[in-house]
Amino acid sequence: MNTPDPDGLLAEQLLRLTRRLHRIQKRHLEPIGVTPAQSRLLRTLAHYEQPPRMADLAERLEVVPRAVTSLVDGLEAADMVRRVPDPTNRRVIRIELTDGGLKALGRLRGARRAAAEDILAPLDAAQREQLGGLLDALFDVPERHRC
């Protein structure tokens, strides 16, 4: 006889929710012409006072530098970012938002709000607050490092 595995069921529910979140986010980003990963890079760029190096972006996004290069290539082709030389070290290339990137950021904010509303539509205000508290509890747990 199989005994129920509540943690396994919960993990499966979280994975299904993650896939649903990705599908909804992707649908709302398509009209802007960016992927979820490109959207994250644009939002990250907006937080820098000075254009960052690709290595800085890779570290902040917690991805390998090659992934940032691919994202920047796509955004540069869409005229949302540009590579600029570092004023103090010409061997260093920095990434800055273009006017097109700034406009895309404005549209991204609206798309994110619409996606969040789609995702949270089944929940009332009290449930949303409870979910926020539960998610905070999951995010505030320090990572355990394994040897």
Describe the structure.
The protein has helices at 6-29, 36-45, 54-61, 65-77, 99-120, 125-139; strands at residues 81-85, 93-97. By secondary structure, the chain is mainly alpha-helical. Strand 1 (81-85) and strand 2 form a beta hairpin. Helix 1 (6-29) crosses helix 5. The model has no long low-confidence stretch (mean pLDDT 90).
Structure, briefly:
The protein has 147 residues and is mainly α.
Would you list the SSEs in sequence order as H and E?
HHHHEEHH
Number of helical segments?
Answer: 6
Strands across the major sheet, in which order?
Answer: 1-2
Instruction: Note the gap between the termini.
Output: 35 Å
The counted number of beta strands is 2
Strand and helix layout:
Layout: H1 6-29, H2 36-45, H3 54-61, H4 65-77, E1 81-85, E2 93-97, H5 99-120, H6 125-139
Antiparallel strand pairs: 1-2
Helix pairs in contact: 1-5, 3-4
List keywords for this structure.
two-stranded antiparallel sheet, 147 residues, mainly alpha, 2 strands
